[in-house]
Amino acid sequence: ETQAQTLGFQAEVKQLLKLMIHSLYSHKEIFLRELISNASDALDKLRFEALARPELLEGGGELAITIDADSKAHTVTIFDNGIGMSRQEAIEHLGTIAKSGTADFLSRLTGDQKKDAQLIGQFGVGFYSSFIVAEKVEVFSRRAGLEPSAGVHWVSAGDGEFTVSDVELPERGTRIVLHLKEGDHEFADQYRIRSLVRKYSDHIAFPVRMPKPAPYKAEEEEKKDDSVVAEVGKEEEKQQPEFETVNHAQALWARPRTELKDEEYKEFYRHVTHDFTDPLAWSHGKVEGKKEYTSLLYIPSRAPYDLWHREGARGLKLYVRRVFIMDDAEQFLPLYLRFVKGVVDSADLPLNISREMLQQDPAIETMKTGLARRVLDMLAKMAKDEPEKYATFWKEFGTVMKEGPAEDHANRERIAKLLRFSSTLADKPEQDVSLEDYVGRMKEGQKEIYYVIADSFSAAKSSPQLEVLRKKGIEVLLLSDRVDEWLVDHLREFDGKQLKNVARGELDFSAIQSEEEKKAQEELSQSHKDLVERIKKALAEQVSDVRVTARLADSPACLVLGQYDMGAQMRRIMEAAGQ
Ligand code: ADP
Ligand code: MG
Description:
Residues 1-355 are annotated as: A. The chain is of the alpha+beta class. It starts with a strand and ends with a helix. Magnesium ion (MG) binds at residues 34, 37-38, 126.
């Protein structure tokens, strides 16, 4: 080995390592899942790069992951003959965190073990999780296409720095050796590892190979005669143990639905998202016909830390006939469904498709429409059959769904049915009133869906414009999310009924006012004509009209917007945008 170089981890890595080891204490075994996940990614990448440069496969050999555990040396070794890393790549990828929003994520950690574990889970601990169980981690790697002499040996105790040096590696790919901590020797057991692989990595599409278990008898004999153990060990090394595949080794989404258990779907979700918690729902299906593709789409149960980051990861994993093409393919779902995770596998896109091509291909637009429909159907089903789950969904992702009507005109009606609001019926901030519920409760003669919009729930709830409507028992939707004004501007109506801002223009009470009320209103207007004129004059600069109103019950006066004025929230958004 030559050219040893000791480098410090990026500050964020140091911080993550410390927090992770502390917070994930009770989720130790995830290290194996992360390392197998990386090995699988590395194989995917090699297969993808080899499409254009077949020489990278160096003459063939099965793409596979090999795991071995040595209970005497207390080591676990994970090897993949995938894309590998150059020295420079090892320094970058195993010394820094490249993800957007890392600083924000770190600042949200609280020190509360349980909460942090969840956050870290969402963020994805990846390679660094090795240090939960290892006191020393060694990585031997060679990038596909480079000479055997271009191997790199990376080693670290996870305490702030790592060392890299050159090493000759005849085999392409990456070998990771974990030297287990004193208290974690249990993971150097073949059976333990094997059961973890079955549990967490069965869905990995490449074979995960492990030594065949020795026959029971041989083990007994070994125990009997302690004196020859050392020599027996030597013999075994020379013999090369026989390896066997311990997982399904088949792309999960390509297997028939009937064959798959919920647990397998959930594990696959973890592989795709790194999220510890179970998804709320998933939808797995195949579309045949002009465009043939399989999709497996998940609704997470919590909003990811980067849902509102402009650069946040979104989109699906794209495969073409099982060959991994890219992560975060954004073109397959509209933006308001950016919380959906999963895989789409096309049967007819070209293998060399690029992001740019995806943007231009009209076939993608068709798939996007189909996939959006699939998600909306899944949500409609959840809302109908599992309202509690749906409430969780709405709490996490409702504000994103509210972008839907503006973005996806074709599905406006479908999205409208999925929306939930607060209303004067319960007067609580939880949004659980659907437009269908509202319409079902409309008073006889009421033609419009009333809403009020304000900066906060409590401001909306105490709007003076609501007084009379409350008295009359007419329900009003209470809107206070930033996106709400944008939403009502694009939704406009539901089930043939206009959405009507009670603080805008004149309210048509004619259908729900009694004859006496109408008469009294008329008389009031007449008798106050002079007063109204005087106020109009006095406020000529400030207001465009003054009216006697049936809108109020207790307050003497209120301000309303003209029918076509821009709402207050919208005005603020425009101002913020410099308009
Ligand atoms: P992620 O997998 O989310 O990118 P990780 O922390 O798991 O994050 O891995 C960091 C990076 O290290 C990977 O993106 C990859 O570039 C590199 N890496 C890790 N394991 C391997 C491997 N077995 N083969 C090649 N590269 C790897
Ligand atoms: Mg990873």
